[in-house]
Amino acid sequence: MQQLSIPELAASFETGESVYLAGASGEANELTSMLADPRASLADAHFASSFIPGINTRCLARPGHRSRLTVFFMQPVLRAALAEGRVDFRPMNYFGIQRHLSDAATPFDTAVVQITPPDAAGRCSLGPAVEFMPGVIAHAARVIGIVNSALPRLPGAASIPMDCLSAVAYSDAPPSLYEVGRPSAVATQIVAHLAPLIPNGATVQVGLGKVPAQLLEALAGHRNLALHTGLISDAALGLAGAGALRRERAIVTAVAVGSAELYSRLPELHGLEITDVGVTHSPQTLGGLRRFHAVNSALEVDLLGQVNAEVIDGRYVSGPGGLPDFAHAAHAADDGLSIIALNSTDAGGSVSRIVTRLGNGAPVTLPQHEVDAVVTEYGVAMLRGQSVEERARRLCAIAHPQHRPALRRSMENLAG
User: Fold this and answer.
1) CA 406 to chain centre
2) Mean pLDDT, the chain, whole residue set
3) Which stretches of 77-121 are DSSP H helices?
4) Three-state DSSP class for 146?
């Protein structure tokens, strides 16, 4: 097996070679920092990655070069390369990304996977980020492992045999960190309305952010809960420590991303399973969850209940992610709910996030019929089974007070 240094690995990619690199906490930071450096003398490969805004912020389509990058979430650092035609942005739901990346008809020349040192049986754990990697590895022409001693070895995470690798490099760079920040007053108000919607015994999906983190803290008194989600962060530690989670399959996720403490404590979590998106976001898996409650954020919700979670002022700032997968399943589940939680306004307070119609060019990330409830700091709008007029009335009632009069005046044209 060939052994490479990280600089040698970065220099090994050829112009036009298709290379998959993991995102989230699976990002090989020592390698990507070199690949993103415009001063480095490297070939112009075509990279693809599941980089997540706010966590993976390097642009591998380097300025002044012909390197390319395929992504599934847009973020500001990519805009210049996007304008130059060197970023291929594909706004797809997570299960759709899984099918695309694991399709034998579109293999990668190279897959680079960050792994733990091998155990006695020669198997290497993928640690806190499994995500799309098993499907990518299955059809890649060559697989290169970056053995990282800083990754936690997790018995409930996917692993691969060391002898399946074409080459190996070594690193001790820590995994990417995620910090939610201090609790906010608005998030506290949203959670006060949101937490009572979650019953004991529910299977809960949440994403990243202040509202999800504070919601899990508020659920500490619940019992027999389970988390089934795309990503977990530090808030899962508190929920587990409070005794709120069931013992078996307590946490099923594709990624864990957070603080250094989270990574060090992951091996302690009972019932933790970190697996690929083909499991976490599969319609078959999600359809079997009991009392499934999906809690997701949005950029705006219109008076029909349609959700935009991707575009602000006509520009993409994210992608659909797992929202469509989880919301559809929660809406269809017996005793389940598809919930959208958002601030009533933007950070400055001047722009309402409850709108008459979605903005020009804004995609419908989630259709109206798959939204059961919308929550802001002003309350809960239960939409399931309601008429167009009643849905609009309830959404107006949870908008910011200064925006309610204009929204109510616009209601009469909704059904026209």
Assistant:
1) 34
2) 95
3) 79-83, 94-101
4) strand
